[in-house]
């Protein structure tokens, strides 16, 4: 017996935005190692109330042994695709388009300013990383650039840790916002405590990493299942000459974000490995 899936998504092309704010499916598994499954796509209804071509977006697609998926001339976009010996039958014009889950966001050419007096509010020492920047979003299969995005990362020095001429400090109250030119939030959330430290005395820079809890992102559905709610944030500041964090400085900065799996997903991966595309900018 062959089951059918009605396609109803708006065709946004080979873009991660197509998986969000659209009629999309999370995980579709057709058959298992012990049970065959057979599915055919269909477009029996004008689900969107217009004549635009409808497609199907699926974040994770699996076809099991001796199972089959008939596209019947239609288009299916997927972040992840696994075929364990099954049959993919596209038809005359059908196509399966792999997009790849987002594995990295990066912004370079930012400005980092540090004020030990706390700025206008005269509070704790303030670090501010800002600027318009082109934000690169990429998977293992493709890249997209959001031009002139507004990037802001701010936080306070909680503890001075400089010693022997090597500048270092623990920063807290960190908040990161990345908003593109269309006012869409690419990533926003609170960042945990981050130690910024010179790699060596006189190296002219500071680097640090921390975990970010993502509270808003139009790209959320573009991450692999079990990813996207937590990201590792790396901050790299260059062009500064420091012995400690008692003096103001300005420099250039880059920010990288890497999605990491949620705890439940980590448990599933305990006996395997995860390949992350990690394009560091410092």
Task: Offer a quick outline of the entry.
The chain is mainly β. The protein folds into two domains: 3-98, no CATH class; 104-262, no CATH class. It has one helix and 18 strands.
Description:
The protein has one helix at residues 263-268, and strands at residues 3-6, 9-10, 24-30, 38-42, 54-63, 68-70, 75-83, 87-89, 95-98, 104-115, 126-138, 143-160, 168-179, 185-191, 194-197, 205-216, 230-238, 249-259. Helices cover 2% and strands 51% of the residues. The protein is elongated. The chain has two domains: 3-98, no CATH class; 104-262, no CATH class. The chain contains one helix and 18 strands. The protein is mainly beta and 282 residues long. The strands form three sheets. Strands 10-11-12-13-14-16-17-18 form an eight-stranded antiparallel beta barrel. Strands 2, 3, 5, 7 and 9 form a five-stranded mixed β-sheet that branches.
Helical run tally: 1
What is the residue-averaged pLDDT? 90
Shape: elongated
The count of domains is 2
Q: Pairing-aware structural class of the strands and helices?
A: mainly beta
> Ranges with pLDDT <50 over ≥5 residues?
265-282
Indicate the percent of residues in helices. under 10%
Percent strand: over 45%
Tally of strands:
18
Rounded to an integer, what's the Rg over CA atoms? 23 Å
The profile of the biggest β sheet is: 8 strands, antiparallel, barrel
End-to-end separation in angstroms reads: 55 Å
Q: Largest beta sheet: what is the strand line-up?
A: 10-11-12-13-14-16-17-18
């Amino acid at each position: 017996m062959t089951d059918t899936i009605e396609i109803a998504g708006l065709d946004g092309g080979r873009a991660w935005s197509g998986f969000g704010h659209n009629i999309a499916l999370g995980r579709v598994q057709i058959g298992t190692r012990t049970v065959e499954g057979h599915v055919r796509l269909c477009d029996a209804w004008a689900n969107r109330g217009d004549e635009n071509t409808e497609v199907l977006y699926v974040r994770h697609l699996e076809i099991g042994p001796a199972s089959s998926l008939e596209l019947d001339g239609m288009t299916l976009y997927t972040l992840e695709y696994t075929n364990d010996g099954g049959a993919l039958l596209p038809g005359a014009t059908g196509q399966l388009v792999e997009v790849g889950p987002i594995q990295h966001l990066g912004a370079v050419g930012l400005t980092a300013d540090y004020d030990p007096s706390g700025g206008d509010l005269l509070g704790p020492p303030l670090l501010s990383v800002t600027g318009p920047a082109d934000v690169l979003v990429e998977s293992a299969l493709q890249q997209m650039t959001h031009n002139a995005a507004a990037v802001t990362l701010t936080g306070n020095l909680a503890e001075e840790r400089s010693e022997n001429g090597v500048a270092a400090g623990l920063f807290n109250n960190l908040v990161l916002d990345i908003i593109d030119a269309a006012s869409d939030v690419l990533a926003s959330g609170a960042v945990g405590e981050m130690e910024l430290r010179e790699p060596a005395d006189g190296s002219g820079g500071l680097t640090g990493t921390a975990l970010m809890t993502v509270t808003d992102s139009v790209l959320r559905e573009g991450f692999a299942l079990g990813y996207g709610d937590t990201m590792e944030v790396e901050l790299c500041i260059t062009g500064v000459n420091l012995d400690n964090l008692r003096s103001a400085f300005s420099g250039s900065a880059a920010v990288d974000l890497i999605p990491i799996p949620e705890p439940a997903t980590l448990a599933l991966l305990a006996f395997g490995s995860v390949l992350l595309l990690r394009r560091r900018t410092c």
